[in-house]
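debug: dumping io for the single-chain case to check the tokenizer round-trip. Nothing else runs in this session.
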Amino acid sequence: MDQPSRHVYVIHLSVAQLNLYVPDDLAARLKREARKAGQPLSRYVLSLLAPSRTSGWPPGYFESVCGFLREDFPEPEDPLPEPIEAIETRR
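debug: decoded output
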């Protein structure tokens, strides 16, 4: 009887280590908040530093910040420059 094939996939992600020096009271607060969130301290701090990739723009952002842009942009009056050929370089 044939054995089903098994595939093993290994993904290696390179992660930099960063030492962050903060006042004691801030360190205590971060540890408390990480505990409340049920996350390791490093993951909690990362969630504060790195923007969420799924959140996108806040609701109503474009209406409040760019609300005046209600029409298509007009074409510029001056034409774009003509493309130029690349210059070869020697090393």
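debug: round-trip ok. The mean pLDDT is 78.
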